[in-house]
Specification:
This protein is an alpha+beta fold and 233 residues long. The protein has 2 domains: 58 residues; 154 residues, Histidine kinase-like ATPase, C-terminal domain (Heat Shock Protein 90, 2-Layer Sandwich). It has 8 helices and 7 strands. A 5-stranded mixed beta sheet has the order 2-4-5-7-6. A two-stranded antiparallel sheet has the order 1-3. Strand 6 and strand 7 form a beta hairpin. Helix 2 packs parallel to helix 7, helix 3 runs parallel beside helix 4 and helix 4 runs antiparallel to helix 7. The two termini are 37 Å apart. 28% of the residues are buried.
């Protein structure tokens, strides 16, 4: 099913991008606009399909972790680069707060990356121009690993936080409802954190911003001296 859905969508997006970029010659402005709409719609549909497939695996208990020693600081840098253009287009400042030296985490690197991308994309989407999105990573007093994304955006009412964590959840805020999205980003993020034995917490104040904190248990933190050999390999 995954292959049958993704293959034609990738073709639609690829050909529409060629038309949009006028790769084989100039096209009428109207056709270029149509190609842009086709590409954007295809990208949105592909995102929805990927999220549904991931959620299906989680709900069926078939989501597995490919665990390894993960350099989270490096993953943060990669994710910040990936969203930098979108943030710049929206007139937002990006920042990182990583307490050095940050120890590695024994985790699924792809899922850590997906957690961060989901949180950063949400933060950028719901933060007005001139705002700020910050990614932070640190150990707390108990030795747990905390990964946090906070913004100066529109915020979420306390009564709506649990709804936002439900698959396809709809919150009361009109500003949140009108934003395009799958409704699966936060539920998937929480599921991926829970697969690691962790928890996801949302702290938010309407009109002031939101902080989402992913907490990973201390037994997943790799002592720096243990990691010298791991990274050397």
């Amino acid at each position: 099913m995954s292959h049958e859905l993704r293959s034609p969508l990738n073709a639609i997006m690829g050909f529409s991008e060629l038309i949009k970029e006028q790769a084989f010659g100039e096209v009428k402005p109207e056709y270029r606009e149509y190609a842009e709409n086709i590409h954007e719609s295809g990208a949105h549909l592909l995102e929805l399909i990927n999220d549904i497939l991931d959620m299906s695996k989680v709900e069926a208990g078939k989501a597995n972790l490919d665990e390894r020693v993960t350099n989270v600081a490096k993953v943060i840098d990669t994710c910040m680069r990936l969203v930098s253009v979108r943030a710049e287009t929206n007139g937002l400042a990006l920042a990182t707060e990583v307490r050095a030296p940050l120890p590695p985490l024994y985790a699924d690197e792809r899922k850590i990356r997906q957690i961060l991308i989901n949180l950063l994309t949400n933060a950028i989407k719901f933060t007005p121009r001139g705002g700020r999105v910050t990614t932070a990573a640190r150990l707390d007093a108990n030795g747990d690993f905390l990964l946090e994304v906070r913004d100066t955006g529109i915020g979420i009412a306390p009564a709506d936080i649990e709804k936002a964590l439900e698959p396809f959840g709809q919150v009361a805020s009109e500003a949140l409802r009108t934003q395009q999205g799958t409704g699966l980003g936060l539920p998937l993020t929480r599921s991926f954190v829970q697969l690691h034995g962790g928890t996801l917490k949302i702290e938010s104040t309407p009109g002031q911003g939101t902080a989402v904190i992913a907490r990973f248990p201390a037994d997943r933190v790799i002592a720096l001296e243990q990691n010298v050999v791991s990274f050397a390999g």
